[in-house]
């Protein structure tokens, strides 16, 4: 995965970012069939990870897959704010599911693990989620995100000034995962600079410690 931290000036989604999204959505509509979305490498391997963890990816779709399906089905996307929407642009373009958080809502070390029957959190606009069998992120206060949904607790607001972004990568190294992740990280940083005047950007790439 890639981790990006930055100081940001968040704001309502502006016209320039909406135009960027409109161009991307037009490209997706012209080049993508609904039944082929899950074959996109980053989405395909995220779905495979869900299956290995014990979750049906057709019931709990990765966020990037959800976004692309909405576009192809002409359901449209909701404008949230500049920081969230630029994360959606990267997800749609790359197939990676991004977690975009207000860093000030999180405490202590963050762990990535597989959810158990005792784990739950309130997803943004989704109510309490069943996260058993999903890859989940947990801080000192509890679980707060999966590649399917982020939580109400850690969500980005207009007042967010310290951003934390996770790019979840399950593409194997031998299939070009490292290069794809690096490209997604660079695109995210470029958009952060353009649209939320990001400063003090710190980024790193880490691998899981066990399989």
Walkthrough of the structure:
It is built from five helices and nine strands, in the order E-H-H-H-H-E-E-E-E-E-E-E-H-E. It is of the alpha+beta class and 211 residues long. The chain has one domain: Phenylalanyl-tRNA Synthetase, Chain B, domain 3, CATH 3.50.40.10. Strand 4 and strand 5 (127-130) form a beta hairpin. The longest helix has 19 residues, at 177-195. The chain is globular and about 45 Å long.
Q: CATH homologous superfamily?
A: Phenylalanyl-trna Synthetase, Chain B, domain 3
CATH top level is Alpha Beta
Q: Characterize the biggest β-sheet.
A: 4 strands, antiparallel
Q: What is the CATH architecture term?
A: 3-Layer(bba) Sandwich
CATH topology title: Phenylalanyl-tRNA Synthetase, Chain B, domain 3
Instruction: Work out the oligomeric state of the chains in this entry.
Output: single chain
Brief overview:
GO terms for molecular function: phenylalanine-tRNA ligase activity; RNA binding. It holds the Pfam family B3_4. The chain has 211 residues and is of the alpha+beta class.
Secondary structure: elements and pairs:
Blueprint: E1 2-7, H1 15-31, H2 41-53, H3 63-72, H4 82-94, E2 97-102, E3 111-114, E4 120-123, E5 127-130, E6 135-139, E7 142-145, E8 162-168, H5 177-195, E9 199-205
Antiparallel strand pairs: 1-8, 1-9, 2-8, 3-6, 4-5, 6-7
